Every structure is written in C-alpha cells, then in structure tokens.
Amino acid sequence: MSAAVQSAAPVATMQAVTHPLLIRWSMLALASLGACSGACAGTIAGTVSFPSQVVPSMTVYVSDLDTSRIHTALLTRGQVNFAVEVPPGRYLVFLAPNEPGAPDIYGAFTRYSQCAPHAVDDAACADHALIPVAVTAKAPRAAVTIDDWYLTDDIADQLDRIRDAAGDRSPKEPLSAPRFSEYPSESYEAGAPPKIDFGSSEPSQEDRELAEAALAGGPNFAGHVTVTLTSCGTACGRVLLIDWRSGAVQELPPAAPRDESQGTLPCRIDEALQFRRDSRLLSLTRPEGNAVVTQYYVWNQNAAAPLRGGEIRRRLQAFCAVAAGSARSCDD
Questions:
Q1: Most buried of 80, 174, 240, 310 (most Cβ within 10 A)?
Q2: Are 85 and 126 in contact (CB under 8 A)?
Q3: For residue 330, pLDDT beyond 80
C-alpha cells in the first residue's frame, strides 16, 4: 500500500499495477456491474488527458451516487475517448490505469477539470473535489474530460472504497510487505528506443521480437527500464529487463534453485508479477508446494541491476481465501 503523498502530486491507489506471467495467460474479465435493466436512458461520453506520452490501458468507473451501482468500461492502450451507457442518475466518473508500469494513480472528473486552461490564479484550479455528472431523460448525454490526476488523499480514499464495493481491488498485502512508494525511482524522459544488447547470450528470434515490441511501449519499471516476459517452455516464464540508458538486457535473478519462474498460481494470478514505472520495487509470486512465496527485487540505480530483496511466504489456502472472501463480499 502506497504511503500518503501531498495533494499537489498524483495520489497512489491501493492497487499495484500487475502483469501475469507468460506461463499461462489469463485476462481478468471486466464486467459492467451496473448493467442497465431494459433500455439505457443516456450516455456519459469522455475524453482522457493522461499525464505522460504513452496512454496506458485503463478502466473507466461510473459510480451511481444514489444506488452505489458501478458501471465499468475498458480502454485499450492509446484510447482517449469512451462512452458508457447509463440509466438516469447522478454519477462520479474516474479512471485507473490497469497495465504493468502505468502510474498507479486515479484520474477523475473534478472542479479542476472545469477550470480551463487551468489558470494558476483561478481558485477553482486548486479545487480537486469530485463533480457529479447528471443524466436525465431531457439531457441524456453528458460530456466529461478526465484530466485531473492530482487528487487529494481523501478523494483517493473515497474512490478506493467505491472500487472495494465493486470487488475490483487486489487483496491487501501482509503488513510486512515492502511498498512501491518506499522505493521511488528517478524521472526519465524516454526518447527513441535503445538498440538492444543481449551481451554474450544468443536470444531466439521470438525473444528478440518480444523485447523490441516491449520497448515500443516505453519504460515501465524503475523509471528507465522495460520489463517483459518470454517463454522458456511449458509452465515456465523468464523475466527480462531492458535498460533504456544502455540497451542492456538482463534476466531477473532466479527466485529459487529451479531457476526460471515455474508453476501457475491457482488464484490471484494477476499478482504473479507486479511492478511500476515510478518505483524500483518488483515482486514475483509463485506457488511452492502448499505455500505461496513472494520474492521482492529492488533495482539498484548505481549497479543498473535488480538485487534480491526480502521474501514473504504464505499458506496456499490462506492466500486464496483472501480472494474468495473478496468475491463473496462483492456478491452480498
């Protein structure tokens, strides 16, 4: 869980950005929890202004203030427009990036969004309060611009609670687990992708193509590193790290004597690999017998290499029970 930050900076959400291992791809189904019964009365149309060159995949959340029902929509990478059909009501509209390395922050429609062109001397530009969006039979279409990524801690907590109610939050980590905010990375302005240097290793054509494709999305870890995954056989995945400053390709140090990351998590599979662009912390979670082991790595800026960190071991049953509990609370 990220530590609280000043309101002038993007507020981290409680959810770490995640990426499943290639050992078995599985996409989380993003269902609209507040589907319209019968014909929908209107539409909330939005435009996204994201605070970085690369617009990641995101989820749109439209929360009904009167019924607490949630409508969601998935935005693909690079998509900046969306439309969500809703029945009459008052709604809060916000976004959360949901791909590896994307800034772990919320964007929302607020008073700041209505302050154009965000003049410094305008008091409204300092107000990040959420604004309800009304959809009625007489006004069935509402337009919003999501460009406020500088929410206060209180507002971010409010959005956390909304997502908790939607059953869309990753279970909390143990209190002893390190936090992404505890290992901030230096800012880095990425230009053209570097020339990849595999060193003395002889990568397969598939690995080379995967690495080049990953670079096209820009750095996604520790400020200037791109993390990608390659297959090393059945139920086996290798984590590669590409340094944008040198183009050097490294493989994540083995988490166990078995070398490559093997085995598939039976639950919470989206937590197999977690990392963020604005943090030097990376975690790898794998099954080991009747236990689940999370190994932490920290990118060392001076050595330009990932270093082994701590390890947390949990019983498999307890690890999966948290996810099951979250699902039950969503159904209630």
A1: 240
A2: no
A3: no
Percent of the chain with pLDDT over 70: 72
Residue 71's domain comprises 31-165
Q: In sequence order, what are the residues at sequence separation of 6 or more whose Cβ sits closer than 8 angstroms to the Cβ of residue 318?
A: none
pLDDT level of residue 157 (50, 70, 90 thresholds): confident
Shared domain for 237 and 139, answered yes or no, is no
Residue 117 lies in a domain: yes
Q: Token pair of 180, please?
A: 């992404």
Calpha distance 216→135 (Å, rounded): 39
Do 185 and 161 fall within a single domain? Answer: no
pLDDT given for residue 250 in this prediction: 92
Q: How confident is the model at residue 117 (pLDDT cuts 50, 70, 90)?
A: low
- Report yes or no on 20 lying in a domain: no
CA angle, residues 28, 31, 33, in degrees to nearest 5: 135
Tens-place pLDDT, residues 246-257: 999 998 876 554
The larger pLDDT score, comparing residue 37 to residue 144, is at 144
The CATH number linked to 123 is 2.60.40.1120
Cα angle 13, 97, 269 (rounded to 5 degrees) comes to 85
Judge whether 140 lies within some domain.
yes
Quote the tokens at residue 111: 């008073």
> Confidence class of residue 313 from pLDDT cuts 50, 70 and 90?
confident
CA pair distance 135, 71, nearest whole angstrom: 14
CB 306 within 8 A of CB 208: no
Element spanning 242, H or E: strand 236-243
Tell whether 304 and 212 lie within a shared domain: yes
